[in-house]
Amino acid sequence: MSDSGSKTILAFASGLFIGAAVGTVAGILFAPDKGTETRRKIAEKTGEYKDEISEKIDQLKGDIEEKIAEVMPKEKKVTK
């Protein structure tokens, strides 16, 4: 995949994720629940999103390391 294609996919995925998070929070805030229930829901969703973000970062880190391994030479040859 080309570098610009990867950036486009990453930008789209990021936008989709951020949009889903904002939509979820807005839905919770405008729902007719008690304040304590709303705060509980926000805390719960925040924890879920934190876990998802951590997983995505780990996956992205692995992908970057893989790309670097493809680009970098396997062994450095020392000539004398």
Structure commentary:
- The chain is elongated, with a radius of gyration of 20 Å.
- It has one domain.
- The mean pLDDT is 78.
- It has 80 residues and is mainly α.
- Helix content is 80%, strand content 0%.
- It is built from 2 helices and no strands.
Explain the layout of strands and helices:
Layout: H1 3-29, H2 35-71
Radius of gyration: 20 Å
Strand tally is 0
Stretches where pLDDT is under 50 for at least 5 consecutive residues are: none
What share of the residues lie within helices?
Answer: over 70%
Q: SSE order, as H and E?
A: HH
Portion of residues in beta strands equals under 5%
Main beta sheet? none
Mean pLDDT: 78
Number of helices: 2
Main structural class: mainly alpha
Task: Quickly count the domains.
Answer: 1
- Overall 3D shape: elongated
For this structure, the quaternary state is single chain
What's the N-to-C terminus distance?
38 Å
In a nutshell, what does this entry contain?
With 80 residues, the chain is mainly alpha-helical. It has two helices and no strands. The protein has helices at 3-29, 35-71.
Task: Supply the key terms.
80% helix, 80 residues, 0% strand, mainly alpha, 2 helices
